[in-house]
Amino acid sequence: MASGSVEPSSAMSDFLEKSNGYAILDGGLATELERHGADLNDPLWSAKCLISSSHLIKRVHLDYLEAGADIIITASYQATIQGFEAKGLSREKSESLLWKSVEIAREARDSYYKEHGECLVNDVGNGSLLNQRPILVAASVGSYGAYLADGSEYDGNYGDLVTLETLKDFHRRRVQVLAESGADLIAFETIPNKLEAQAYAELLEEDDKNIPAWFSFNSKDGVNVVSGDSLLECASIADACKKVIAVGINCTPPRFIQGLILSIKKVTTKPILIYPNSGETYDPERKEWVKSTGISDEDFVSYVTKWREVGASLIGGCCRTTPNTIRAISKALSKGFAAPLQ
Ligand SMILES: [Zn+2]
């Protein structure tokens, strides 16, 4: 994937081929950072740790690698240049924190390889992976709503004043910085509406960026994305963009996932990724998760083989999932669900 000569469209398929046809993503970052003692009570959320406690982020990445994750997602979901500048940081410092999010994940990967003697990425410089377990670093980009931190990432309603150009201008520099950061791909996560998907697709085509991406939407009714826009239309935008190598759903209750996979399959043949939340609901006003609405790791995992059967090839967890969830997913998938039903 790091190779410039690989067509973006086949990069994910090649990667999946090397990992038995499926790959495991990591799980929730914020929950784990808090468990390790980080205080995330801040509009910058997990990005705050980039400033104050990067060692904890590395620890969590390592925990997920140990649990079986093949792809780790950086702590940049809520890291935006505008957000850092609002905290009084310079433009330069803000951009360096985006870089740092990728650097921490790459360091975690290096440490993991070192510890497990798997550092076999060839040194010819063409980036092909020779080891049995390739690990990718995905640079997270959260939505405009995640930056606003007002809950609009969960309803996708930005109001009439926000246009395609507004969103492109908002995301442009961050995407440029992350594209050159040494990440293997960009993870556009929790995309709440069609307009933002379109903005990302157009940004990826700008100035010939040499990095692939995945698009991941969220849904709260199991049919449409959270804004009410058609998932089919959103996934079609991802399908039409050459730089997009996988399309899917994250931060959505497990019970909706199977139907959503079937929908996405109608409009794309690209690999499908899913990383649901634990099923607990988030109260945007109180800015906290309502416990008691979630499901256990065992229940979560009972869905996993079904998701794989109906066509998901990248599976992990979002908010409130833990290394235990990922370990359980890894175990369930290794029990021989090599190929989805066609
Ligand atoms: Zn989430």
From TrEMBL:
Gene3D superfamilies: Homocysteine-binding-like domain. Binds 1 zinc ion per subunit. Its cofactor is Zn(2+). One of its GO terms (molecular function) is zinc ion binding. Zn(2+) binds at C251, C318, C319. GO terms for biological process: methionine biosynthetic process; methylation; S-methylmethionine cycle. Pfam families: S-methyl_trans. Residues 11-333 form the Hcy-binding domain. This is Hcy-binding domain-containing protein. The lineage of its organism: Eukaryota, Viridiplantae, Streptophyta, Embryophyta, Tracheophyta.
